[in-house]
Design goal:
Length: about 270
């Protein structure tokens, strides 16, 4: 469905890549990392909005891609009804009936101007457009950022509806890892412009344990493999590869990490 091969992009004070990333069709891939890690730049390279300095990109035709950005890419003075009229000629499979039905379902008024829409409504407008042209691939850049919990839950449910068709694929970029944990089949983690982990979500989570220790320190050879180790008044804690779970001190406790634990600790490094 999507493949980036050795893509790089240099910007003042930041370099993306080289990035090697393959998005498997028929699944939801969560793309996670801190703000400024390179998520948006990667998506812009993928979509052809930014030309890479090096590398190659394979992706479907743009008529098969639905894009949901943090700010809708429509003329702010357009009415919602105008958006459908402008987009329809560019998409051979456009269905105005689907567009109208979804706007009604999402409670997005046709007579509102784009600039007056709330963040949640703006997301729903873009998703309605993606559904209306029968997108095979849905690319979302921080869609739940700034939304209240109810709106976030609703948006995640909409993505689940989109994936009822097994031929569809979602690339969901976010720094809100709880949303990714709910729906992602695969997870790619980016930090400082580099992909530092990418696998099935369950495999990624099973590969690490979060260890909380007391007064007994970790063995030196294990410390060198620990991520984000922290010392505090009651002891220490660290993320460890799961293979070390049987070698931790007797007064330490190992537990499954959250995706947030994993992203933060791996980004901090050894």
């Amino acid at each position: 469905m999507i493949e980036l091969r050795g893509d790089t992009k240099h910007r003042p004070g930041f370099t993306l890549g080289p990035v090697d990333l393959t998005i498997k069709p028929g699944f939801v891939t969560g793309f996670v990392g801190a703000n400024g890690a390179g998520k948006t730049t990667t998506l812009k390279v993928l979509l052809g909005m930014v030309l890479p300095d090096a590398g190659e990109v394979s992706r479907p035709a743009m008529t098969d891609i639905g894009v949901v950005l943090d700010v809708p890419p429509y003329e702010p003075e357009w009415h919602v009804s105008t958006v459908g009229k402008v987009l329809a000629p560019f998409y051979p499979r456009w269905s105005d009936a689907t567009f109208q039905e979804l706007l009604g379902r999402f409670d997005v008024p046709l007579n509102r101007k784009v600039r007056t829409l709330s963040r949640g409504m703006a997301m729903k407008l873009q998703i309605a457009a993606a559904f209306a042209h029968d997108a095979r691939l849905l690319v979302l850049d921080e869609p739940t950022s700034g939304l209240d919990p109810l709106s976030r839950d609703e948006l995640v449910g909409i993505i689940g509806d989109f994936m009822m068709d097994e031929h569809r694929t979602v690339l969901f970029s976010s720094h809100i890892t709880s949303d990714i944990e709910r729906i992602a089949d695969y997870v790619a983690v980016i930090d400082k412009g580099q992909i530092i982990a990418h696998s099935e979500r369950s495999d990624l989570m099973d590969s690490y344990v979060l260890v909380r220790g007391g007064s007994t320190p970790l063995e030196t050879d294990i410390v060198s493999s620990a991520y984000g180790i922290r010392s505090h008044t009651s002891g220490w804690d660290a993320l460890l590869p799961a293979r070390y779970a049987s070698q931790i001190p007797a007064d330490a406790v190992a537990e499954p990490p959250s995706l947030d634990d994993l992203v933060v600790r791996i980004a901090k490094g050894h």
